[in-house]
Amino acid sequence: MKYYQIDQQLFIKNRKKFMAQMKPKSIAVFNSNDIYPISADSTMAFEQHRDIFYLSGADQEETILLLFPDALDKKHREILFVRETNEHIAVWEGAKLTKEQGTQVSGIETIYWLTDFDKVFFDLMTEAETIYFNTNEHYRQAVQTQTREDRFIEKCKKDYPAHQWSKSNPILQQIRGIKEPEEIALMQQACNITEKGFRRILGFTKPGVWEYEMEAEFLHEFVRNRSKGFAYTPIIAAGNNANVLHYIENNQQLKDGDLILMDLAAEYANYASDMTRTIPANGRFTDRQKAVYNAVLRVKNEATKMLVPGVIWAEYHKEVGHIMTSELLGLGLLDKADVQSENPDWPAYKKYFMHGTSHHIGLDTHDYGELKTPMKPNMVFTVEPGIYIPNEGMGIRLEDDVVIQEKGEPFNLMRNIPIEAEEIEELMNS
Known about the structure:
There is one protein chain. By secondary structure, the chain is of the alpha+beta class. The protein has helices at 9-19, 50-56, 87-92, 99-106, 117-125, 148-159, 169-177, 181-202, 211-223, 287-305, 313-330, 336-340, 421-428, and strands spanning 26-31, 37-39, 42-43, 64-67, 78-82, 110-113, 130-133, 164-167, 235-238, 259-263, 267-268, 271-272, 276-280, 380-383, 386-389, 394-397, 400-403, 411-412. The strands form six sheets. It has a six-stranded mixed β-sheet with strand order 6-5-4-1-7-8, sandwiched between helices. It has a three-stranded antiparallel β-sheet with strand order 9-10-13. A three-stranded antiparallel β-sheet has the order 14-17-18, with helices on one face. The longest helix is centred in the middle third of the chain and has 22 residues, at 181-202. 39% of the residues are buried.
């Protein structure tokens, strides 16, 4: 891994939080992700399942975590199963975790080879009454591929039909949504790397540059600062491309007068950052561009202030909609008749701002976290309003990542990344 090893105390704390909510005589199992094929002998780069990483720090394929707080033998209350290495694997793939390294990373004393899993699992299931399955219940999930976790659940239901089943996800939604100080520090590092990339790009951008060249500049800066690269597929959208919300082709040339919307950010140690900035290709906003830009910035600033403990996510979005409506009226994009006759289920402002304002962020860009209960301190949210005007050939979105505080306004992890129009112009022309 490129990142510095994370203190095992984070994963010890995370496991304690999870196990505190498990039912008596219950086992929870967490599997690594598969390595997915492309074709022939090609595979995609391995990405660890975020849940097993959150609970163990193990960032390696073919790993299984087992938690059994009521195991009769104390050494079996936490077990990490890892792939046994050999000289052939070491030569062709590189070294894998030894048992000793598994303990160093995770803080788990009992490490077995993966080949021992079936035998150990059968023995422990004779003591257990319930097994927790780790199903994907994220509100945005649309996964069609059968995962390693799915195959384990199928086999377990067949082999142990007399056991009760329960779900890990409700516990994970609750505890993963509230970040530990160590996690916030890792996310801050991801944001700091993102800042370096953005400052680099300000001196590089000009008419005639291609969107993919900007992507390459970001990637260079990210990787040289110990990131694997982008936390999600990068969007670099010049001119009208910005009006396609998930534009990812990044294959067009910048023209004089274009605005470039960049929704991209670095990961660090599997933790995501999520930034959007919009800059002028030629280094100067027109008066109209600046008016729309500053309207978006005002909405972002007001929305950020609203992210405090006790707020309900859905109600927050409604309030942001009212603020955006006022700005759109001021820009002449809406008039009073539009607002008076609007459909409550699709308010008038949605013509120009059709997506949500905030989502949880952490190990996943759209992270786990409760959305129907009041916001809590140390939840981390994006704030990302935008105004999209296809007939004017521009789309503007601005986005920062903020930590909800016990008292006062959220703490902005991207506070050092330039966002004021005048500062961006100054840096692009210096």
